[in-house]
Amino acid sequence: MKKYFLFTILLSCPAFLQATEFLQQSDFDKTQSEIKFSLLHNQIADQKLQDDESGEITYSDRAATTRSTSYKSPGKAFAMSLIVPGWGQHYNGSSKLKSLAFLGTEITSWVLYFKWESDADDLTDAYEKFNKDHWIESRYFDMLDWTYPDRDVNAGQHPELSHHLPTDQNDQQYFEMTGKYDQFSWGWDDAILLADSSMYSDYNVNNPFPFVNTPETTPFSANRNLYETMRNDANNKYDQARKMIYVSMVNRMFSAFEAMFSAKKNNNNSSVLSSLSAEASLKSLYVKRDTPYITLSMKF
After folding, report:
1. What pTM does this model have?
2. Cα 175 to Cα 189: distance, rounded to the nearest angstrom
3. For 2-32, what is each residue's pLDDT tens digit?
C-alpha cells in the first residue's frame, strides 16, 4: 500500500507582500515584475520543467519507482520446491543450510524407501520359502476329509472353517491364510496336540482329527509361530518403506509453502522505501505564476 507524506512549502510570505506592492505598482514596475518571473520561468524550463494544462510549471526529481530487482515470484518458488525440495529456497537466496536440509530430507526418505522395500522383498521371499518347506497342503486336506466330510453340505455348522484356500500356491492370500487361521494348523509339519501329544501320524480316516474349534483342540506348531513372526517382520518393513513416501510428500509441501511465504516476505521487506520525489512549481495566486511551491513526497 502506498503511503504519502506530502509536504507543501508555501513561499508566499514574501511573495504576498510583493504581490500587494505589485497591484499598486506603476505600469513600468509591473512590466519589470513580469520580466523577473519570466526569467525565473525560463531558468526552471532549462531544467526540464513541464507546463501542465492548468498553467503550473513543475520540475520533478523523482526516485525510480520500478520493481525492486530482488523481487521473487512466490508462485515460481512454490513450484520449484514442490518439484525439488530446497530449490525454491535456493531461488529465494535463503541460506544454503535451509536448502540442503529440505533436499537432504528428500534424498534420505527415498534412499530409505528403496532400501526398506528391498529388505521387505527379501523377508517375503524368506517366509514364502519357509512356508513351502514346512506347510504341507495334503495334511490340511486330510484333516478336512477325515474330520469334516459334510463341510459342503452343512457349512453353517462349522464356523471355524471360515476361509477357502486359494488354488494358486503363490497367491499372497495363500501365504497369509496358512499361518493366520487355526483351521490350517494341521498342515504344519510339526503340529502337535498338546492335550495328549497327538501328531498327524496318529490320525486317519477311522480316527479323525478333533474339530479345530477350541484352543484345546487346536494343535500347536513352533514353525507356524516362527512363520507368523517372519511374515510380520516383512509387513512391518513394507510399512516403514511406505512411511518414507509420506515423509517425502510432507517435506515437499512444507518446502513449497515455506519458499512461497519467504518470497512474499522478501518482496514486502524490499519494497519499504520505493519512491522519493521533490517537485518545484510556480502557481498563480495573484498574478500569473507569482508563487513558488516545493512539494516533497515519500512513498512506502
Report:
1. 0.63
2. 16
3. 333 333 333 333 433 343 444 454 555 555 5
